[in-house]
Amino acid sequence: MLFDLHPKERREELFGREREIEYSVNQLLSKNWILIGGQREMGKTSLMKVVINELRKEHGFKGIYINLRGVRNLNSLLEMMLSEISNTKIELNVRINFMIGSAGVKVKKGAKVVNSLIELLNSIEDNFVIGLDEVQELSQASKYFLGVLGNVFTSNEKVRFIFTGSYIGVTRSLIDPPSLSPLHGRPPVVLNLRRFREEESASFLKRGMEELNLDFNREDQVVKRLDGVVGWLTLFGNLHAVRGMSFEDALNSTVAEGSKIMVDEFKHFLENKGNKALYVKLMEIVKVVSRWSEIKRGIEISLGNIDDKELTLALDSLVNNNFMEKGDKGEYKIVDPLLREIDFGRIWLPT
């Protein structure tokens, strides 16, 4: 069902991404790794899950999906990966850092996490795809994580990775590895998911309503408010067609609920930021002006003098985390329609 709020897992459930599915599958079959990018609510997780299942179903792969939200270290990654890989019932030839008993495979006491991950992944002898969702969450462990990936890329061509993530930390190092990186010369293919065009958004709503045997002719009003962000279109469809809300209530509730989700995302982004007021004020200012010089003027009126480099780094961080976009002419804009409606000044208030 198109209006199911869970990430899609089957090809026939994923609307408007046929080309992306084919491209991703072909790249992984060619032994390239993939990073799926794009702003929030574009369906990155759905595409990842569908591609993993396509490789299982059509090409005999084994595969696992891991949500890295909140995972900050390699010990947690190892625990999750070992559990998921064990569930696939493949034979693991691990002896150095692991014990194999009646309860399954366990890490030996005192074993080094990097060595254990390398042994685990290099022991896989089947064609195997691993989906790591929100890979930027591992940025605090990026040096060691990239070392593991570099070793596996060189040592075991049976294992292929598919990532999603914002362009920060470990994700940036994946895309553009420095010369000393173990992945230098082996970056993943980057696939950026775009917003639906106006006619695609209308077709998505129309097909979703038809699945539920509902007549609907107000697609234009929905698209005008929610743009081509498939996550928000899906939420509206679920509220209106599945839960039976009136058109107006469903649209208003979509904006309200979607805004809450984006507020939570922005708060998560602010957690490790020192100058939180700067990021909050930038989101407010970019609603009104777009040029760097205008943005700087607005910041200095609100917060006082700011170094050019600090401002640019803050803007880059917001762009790389998909809270705004930078155009070809250097202009900044907030493209998500619900982000534009948020009062960011109320998210974080200095105490």
Automatic annotation (TrEMBL):
One of its GO terms (molecular function) is ATP binding. Residues 279-335 form the MCM C-terminal domain. Residues 15-228 form the ATPase domain. Signal peptide: none annotated. InterPro entries: ATPase_dom, P-loop_NTPase, WH-like_DNA-bd_sf, WH_DNA-bd_sf, WHD_MCM_arc. Gene3D superfamilies: 1.10.8.60, P-loop containing nucleotide triphosphate hydrolases, Winged helix-like DNA-binding domain superfamily/Winged helix DNA-binding domain. It comes from the Archaea. This is Uncharacterized protein. It comes from Sulfuracidifex tepidarius.
